[in-house]
Amino acid sequence: MARLFYTCVFVGVVLTVLAAAVYPLPGHLRQRSIINVVPDGGREEIFAVHWPEDRVQLLPVADGRAPEAMGAAAVLRGADGRPASVEVFRLRDAEDRVIGLASRSTTALAAAAQGSDWVLLVPSRGSLFLHQLNSRDVAPASRVADAPAGPAAESPAFWQGRRQWRITAGPAAGGTGGITGGTGEFAGLAGNYDEVWQLEPDAGAGSQGRIVLTTRVGMPR
Predict the structure, then answer these.
(1) Residue 6 lies in a domain
(2) Looking at the domain assignment, is residue 89 inside a domain?
(3) Closest CA to 144 of 219, 36, 65, 71
(4) Contact status, residue 207 vs residue 214, Cβ threshold 8 Å
(5) What is the span of the domain harbouring residue 34?
(6) What is the pLDDT of residues 10-50, one digit of tens each?
(7) Following CA atoms 198, 151, 193, 51 in sequence, which dihedral angle do they give, to the nearest 10 degrees?
(8) Quick check: is 166 in a domain?
(9) Does the reported pTM lie above 0.85?
(10) Quick one: which of 3, 30, 78, 162 has the fewest CB in 10 Å?
(11) How far apart are CA 164 and CA 113, in angstroms?
(12) How many structural domains is the chain composed of?
């Protein structure tokens, strides 16, 4: 019986190898990375989101109830009672090819300040973690309660007479946001980034355009 068992295992392994040779396993499509070298020896890479069409719609929870939301953003509350929101987007490269997903969580901070954390997931490369302070209100949750004065950054009223606005307002040097970590190809990298919105009022009651994330990383830590 033991001899029969090991013979079957050996035959199974041989058949698996032969099948894999005839029918190769599918591989992840890896798009060519569009990276520019900057004068200080680091590298710059641009990621983009088409607003609002790249926003991923939320699914109902298990019991069929849709999560509390403003548009496609989950509206949350932090332990301190301050509003927060989480959004998921399709992520594009500098040539507008969809290469992964991006999530943005936005939280109201002390003294009416607001901060955002991005997670950029590129399946063939890894994940990149970003953090910044915001110059404008970008969270749907902040308009549910405790809304700051002035129109939100995505509102058409804000984009009358404007075509571009830098959302990033620190906390890194020069008012840039910080790269806080990464996995895979992005592991061990340090650097900064800027989030810039390039929008215009649409035909309805909203806005349309692009959210551009320009990352600059140096040598691994």
Answers:
(1) no
(2) yes
(3) 71
(4) no
(5) 28-217
(6) 656 655 655 556 555 555 566 677 788 878 778 999 999 99
(7) -40
(8) yes
(9) no
(10) 3
(11) 21
(12) 1
